[in-house]
């Protein structure tokens, strides 16, 4: 047996002294150097008593060592569980407990606060800071740069990514080796990535986009990655002449367009600009082409499915569409009530099937059954249509979800915190247009009888419990929420009413 994901992404780089991670301050990590570091961490995992199939939860800043932990998990047959660094301890508590993680890795600054979480969940706690330093690296220094790769089958799990739900708590999407590998292979070919490519990487590595799409492709293709800790447009511009490609959420592109130094000349050696995770406005697509001559390639994906559709490398990249289903991916548009496929051109719920589709939600058979059909089709909850040229257009969401700067916010989670407050009768959290982040959450609140909620105090309370990006940028008090005849809150009415909240 072998370990297909490790062999394809990492193992083949052993001994290759070619540049892999190019750090902004000038340091270069070679492919060989990277797999050596990963092997040391794989040895640490064994030292800590972890065995194949165990989950490793990490909430750490982006660094080369943070990426090496992902490689080490794959090599040791462990399930990698990355967490958004913005999550608060209560949120982390849920993920660690629910996943049954045996090891938790956090920033040294957060270790004290998270120690009780680890203890309660019976997980070991180790640390790693933004430079890679911490207790894990100390341990790694005592181990050799070689490790006997653990055998894995294509269906064995490689990662858990938690995704929130419209009703209850977050669900751990289980991704197998084959889910990740098949998608990386398809995308590398579809987008023409080779070892000559140099990717500008400014996305976080705790989500599908920055971790799997961007890094898996580059590892498979064997090219180099300019490894930036976060989005800094000045830095992006500085390094663009050395790069061939960029992957980003739409905010990356609107911020580039807002920068006076972002010119056609700067993008001369760029081969490809890719956008996804949130809708790219047709207007951004057109302005980008006017400024640079490049047409952004938009694609569509999800945590549960990796990438589903893409505009073509060669051929028409059409603004306002997410392209056609990727090779090997089947896509249909169905009636939301009956699940029956709809004729071409009609709007319905998008369903997808293929080797990219996840294995189900961890220990949630009911939720899995509700979204993943017996025949393998996954119900995405996105509303769309297939146009007369076979391109998919996403026209809305059947699920109550806000996407802000590429991060998902489930209103229900925020409303639950607000509704629990004695001064609040009820609340509705909606997404309203925002020039920089696409949309931003706003909370519309109704006071409990005779109460006068302190909006500042409510805002502070939300910030103490939820990651900052989920917290509404504005809280508004109203007498009543609009309802339809069935008594359901009409969020579309609220979205229209408050559409101008962040208009400039
Ligand atoms: C940061 N903040 C946000 C935010 N990001 N608020 C709302 N939405 C966001 N996305 C808040 C911070 O909490 C902080 O608040 C303030 O904004 C400034 O923080 P920052 O860290 O300086 O922000 P910035 O660096 O400008 O980050 C914005 C961003 C970043 C868009 C560059 O959010 C980002 O990199 N997003 C990418 C997300 C991503 O990778 N998504 C892929 C999901 S995978 P305060 O109050 O402290 O000032 C997926 C599948 C697929 O969807 O198809 O790809
Ligand atoms: P996540 O759960 O973070 O993986 O978010 C997945 C969701 O992001 C999808 O269900 C879509 O709603 C949205 N999404 C991803 N790519 C695009 C895109 N190109 N256009 C519009 N929405 C997108």
State the shape.
globular
CATH secondary-structure class of the domain at 32-152: Alpha Beta
Helical percent range? 25-40%
Percent in strands: 15-25%
Your description of this structure?
- This protein is an alpha/beta fold.
- Among the domains are: 32-152, Rossmann fold, CATH 3.40.50; 403-497, GMP Synthetase, Chain A, domain 3, CATH 3.30.300.30.
- The protein is 30% helix and 25% strand.
- It contains 15 helices and 24 strands.
- It has helices spanning 4-9, 31-47, 64-76, 89-99, 111-121, 135-140, 177-190, 208-221, 233-239, 250-257, 282-292, 365-371, 411-419, 455-465, 491-497, and strands at 19-22, 28-30, 55-59, 79-82, 103-106, 124-127, 157-163, 171-176, 198-201, 224-227, 245-248, 272-275, 297-302, 306-310, 324-325, 330-334, 348-353, 378-386, 392-397, 402-404, 407-409, 424-434, 438-447, 474-478.
- Strands 2-1-10-9-11-12-13-14-15 form a nine-stranded mixed sheet. A four-stranded parallel sheet has the order 4-3-5-6, with helices on both faces. Strands 16-17-18-19 form a four-stranded antiparallel sheet, with no helix packed on it.
- A hairpin with a 5-residue loop joins strand 18 (378-386) and strand 19 (392-397).
- Helix 7 (177-190) packs across helix 8.
- The chain is globular, with a radius of gyration of 23 Å.
- The model has no long low-confidence stretch (mean pLDDT 96).
- Bound molecules: malonyl-coenzyme A and adenosine monophosphate (AMP).
- Residues 163, 208, 276-279, 298, 300-303, 322, 380, 382, 394, 397, 403, 408 line the site of adenosine monophosphate.
């Amino acid at each position: 047996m072998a370990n297909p994901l490790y062999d394809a992404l990492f193992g083949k780089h052993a001994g290759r002294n070619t540049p892999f991670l190019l750090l902004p301050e000038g340091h270069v990590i070679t492919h060989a150097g990277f797999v050596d570091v990963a092997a040391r961490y794989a040895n640490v995992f064994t030292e800590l008593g972890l065995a194949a199939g165990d989950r490793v939860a990490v909430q750490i800043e982006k660094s080369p060592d943070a990426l090496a932990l992902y490689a080490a998990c794959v090599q040791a047959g462990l399930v990698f569980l990355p967490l958004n660094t913005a999550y608060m301890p209560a949120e982390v508590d849920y993920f660690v407990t629910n996943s049954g993680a045996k090891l938790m890795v956090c920033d040294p600054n957060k270790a004290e606060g998270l120690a009780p979480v680890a203890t309660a969940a019976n997980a070991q706690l180790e640390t790693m800071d933004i430079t890679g330093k911490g207790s894990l690296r100390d341990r790694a220094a005592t181990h050799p740069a070689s490790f006997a790769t653990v055998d894995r089958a294509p269906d064995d799990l490689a990662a858990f990514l938690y995704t929130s739900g419209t009703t209850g708590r977050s669900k751990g999407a289980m991704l197998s080796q084959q889910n990740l590998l098949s998608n990386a292979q398809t995308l590398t070919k579809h987008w023409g990535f080779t070892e000559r490519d140099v990717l500008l990487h400014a996305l976080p590595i705790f989500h599908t986009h920055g971790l799997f799409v961007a890094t898996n492709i580059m590892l498979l293709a064997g090219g180099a990655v300019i490894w930036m800790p976060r989005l800094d447009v000045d830095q992006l511009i500085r390094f663009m002449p050395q790069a061939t490609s960029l992957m980003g959420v739409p905010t990356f592109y609107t911020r580039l367009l807002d920068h006076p130094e972002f010119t056609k000349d700067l993008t001369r050696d760029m081969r490809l600009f890719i956008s996804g995770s949130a809708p790219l406005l047709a207007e951004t697509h057109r302005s980008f082409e006017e400024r640079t001559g490049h047409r952004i390639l938009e694609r569509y994906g999800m945590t549960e499915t990796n990438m589903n559709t893409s505009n073509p490398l060669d051929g028409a990249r059409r603004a306002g569409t997410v392209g056609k289903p990727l090779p090997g991916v089947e896509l249909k548009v169905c009636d939301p009530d009956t699940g029956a496929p709809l004729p071409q051109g009609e709007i319905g719920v998008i369903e997808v099937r293929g080797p990219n589709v996840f294995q189900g939600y961890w220990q949630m058979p009911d939720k899995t059954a509700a979204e993943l059909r017996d025949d393998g089709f996954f119900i995405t909850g996105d509303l769309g249509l297939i146009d007369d040229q076979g391109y998919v257009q996403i026209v809305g969401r059947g699920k109550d979800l806000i996407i802000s700067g590429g991060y998902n916010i489930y209103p229900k989670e925020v409303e639950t915190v607000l509704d629990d407050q004695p001064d609040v009768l009820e609340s509705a959290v909606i997404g309203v247009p925002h020039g920089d982040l696409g949309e931003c959450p706003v909370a519309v609140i109704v006071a409990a009888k005779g109460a006068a909620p302190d909006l500042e105090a409510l805002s502070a309370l939300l910030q103490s419990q939820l990651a900052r990006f989920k917290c509404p940028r504005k809280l508004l008090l109203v007498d009543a929420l609009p309802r339809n005849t069935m008594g359901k809150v009409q969020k579309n009415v609220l979205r229209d009413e408050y559409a101008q909240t962040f208009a400039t």
